[in-house]
Amino acid sequence: MKTIPYGKVYKWIGVVFFTSLFFVGSLQAWQMAISNITQEGQWQVKTLVYHRFGDNRYPSTNTTNEAFEQQLKWLQQNGFTSVTASEVKRLTDKDEKKYVCITIDDGYKSFKENGFPLLKKYGIKSTLYVNTESVDWGDYLSWDEIKELQTQGVEIGNHSHSHDFFLNKKPEERLLYFESDLDLSEKLFKKHLGVQPKTYAYPYGEFNAEMMTLLKQKGYSMAFAQNSGVWNESTNSFAIPRFPMSGNVSIEKFASKVLMEPFRVRFNGEGPFVINQDGSVEIELMYDKEQYNGIVNYFVNGEVYDKPKDEEGVIRLNLHVPQDRRRTIFTLTTKNKDNNWCWKSNLIINLNVVE
Ligand SMILES: [Zn+2]
């Protein structure tokens, strides 16, 4: 068995995959307060991603004004401090306070019209990820509007130029294409805002190791993915999870996600898994068993997946992913020693399904 240099008592466990953002038991987690007891060096920041606000034409990517206000009130009442993406790196008391980082992807006009006024009302910070090719077009904000939001304290991040599916490019062309797309977006940010954002959000949450490395080389400090989970000290800064908050999210579900604790699991590889030619995917994972109560729940596409056989801390699964869906999400939940729910997920991508 291969060993992984990840702290002391980490053990290999095997795997699965999934596609869901919901799980039984979240209501229980909602009732529990976040524990302030952390092991030395541990911290967590709750990261959320939104798209449209008060725009009922697109229910799956929309957050109603009523729901958003209720969520912001909840954050305020429950003692959360908001931070922008780049601020997280500079925090020195992450292990002491409850932090939330609100991100908004795509730069739709409805953010300025409906989302931002509510954030302003509650004094909550946010980071807007802009895909530069769409600016000034249709439902998207104009550069003047983005500049105005920036002036009012919204941090602007890079969400690519084209919002393309970079993994669809041939492997030999992919990185060059990603780099030229990045260069183009940076030129536009510089031209219209005077600055180049140094945090990134991958379109569709699709990326690979070479894209992560390139962003790092280009001076970026972090990049957000789209699998759900809690950002913590063991998170790769170029694969930061976010809980999706678009669609019909009840306040109970919102609270359960914000109160979720990180499940500090390491997978075999960084970023999304790509399905093999034969439709299978092998995932291995490891975590410190001593931090948890030992029971791990597996979900694939929202469905409970049979717990794999644990061979002395090693679980191996060879999963066959639905052939008709591009993105499948694999989720793991467990409880920690304080009896709080913990969460970890990852994307599994089927490149044969072209979007
Ligand atoms: Zn997007």
UniProtKB/TrEMBL annotation:
Keywords: Membrane, Signal, Transmembrane, Transmembrane helix
Bilayer-crossing regions: 12-30
InterPro entries, per database record: Glyco_hydro/deAcase_b/a-brl (IPR011330), NODB_dom (IPR002509), Polysacch_Deacetylase (IPR051398)
Domain NodB homology: 98-307
Keyword NAD among record annotations: no
Localization (cell): Secreted
Alphabetized Pfam families for the sequence: Polysacc_deac_1 (PF01522)
Entry keyword annotation includes Transmembrane: yes
Entry-linked PANTHER family: POLY-BETA-1,6-N-ACETYL-D-GLUCOSAMINE N-DEACETYLASE (PTHR34216:SF3), PTHR34216
Protein's UniProt name: Polysaccharide deacetylase family protein
Organism the protein comes from: Carboxylicivirga linearis
Phylogenetic lineage: Bacteria, Pseudomonadati, Bacteroidota, Bacteroidia, Marinilabiliales
